[in-house]
Amino acid sequence: MYTLRDRTSFAMSFISVAILIMMYKLFLNNLQISQLKAAIHSQHVGLAGTTMINFWLISGLVVVTLATAAINGLSVLVEDRVSGKQADFMIAGVKPYRMLLAYLISAVILTFITTGATFLAGTIIFVGWSGLTGFSLVAWSQLVGLMVFASLLACLLALPWVAMMKSLQSFSIFSTMVGTLIGFVAGIYLPLGALSNSLQKLVLSLPFVHEGALFKQILMAPSADSFFKGMSAAARQQYDLFFGNRLTDLAGQVISSGASQLYLLAWLVVASLLTILSYYWSQRH
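-> structure tokens emitted (285 positions)
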């Protein structure tokens, strides 16, 4: 049922990635280097600092790709509805919920593959092959598991909206809006510490911010441990909080990675319920 028929939509998945790389080259990289130089009172951040900064970028690339690939992976649902293929499937005896499940599974697979490819390419380009060999088996299992979970969550979050669309034009507008805004609302184009307190609280309620923090904690751990070795815990926490590697609750207390995981699990439940509701809505309209 699913093929890469809309290659334009697939290519659109990488536009936000290109925007992030451009902004990284323009000022995000220099901003991080300045922060690290100030922390260590030196004009050089060394290999560990450079690697840490590059993995911060790669974490952002992964989160942006998750959102855009999930939406564009579901484009075939709208195409089939507009072309009348969904009606043909139902005439052939295919249950509507089976079609919806097929679209979801296909989109999750595509999102995972696209996200994984983005991570591998980003690591090789910005860090080198050594960046792929510096992780333990535990870290790799955490990374792959998080990618699978995040791919499912991204598709479930997008599906209720896409399922209600009845034209390719509305889908194109929705896809463009999300692709443009995802980096801003997820605290990727601008570090969380650069936002006002009210905006930070709003952004911290979004699942993509928590996904980004978890990816950063996994990918940046080896280089960050090396860079901040011998420095105070306060210096590392200040850096982590400013760049969204660690998050805080509404009371300003730093939350654990386990708390972020539970928060994402709650979002998964909510997204699943919304998908079921959108399915029943689409059957009546």
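The mean pLDDT is 84.
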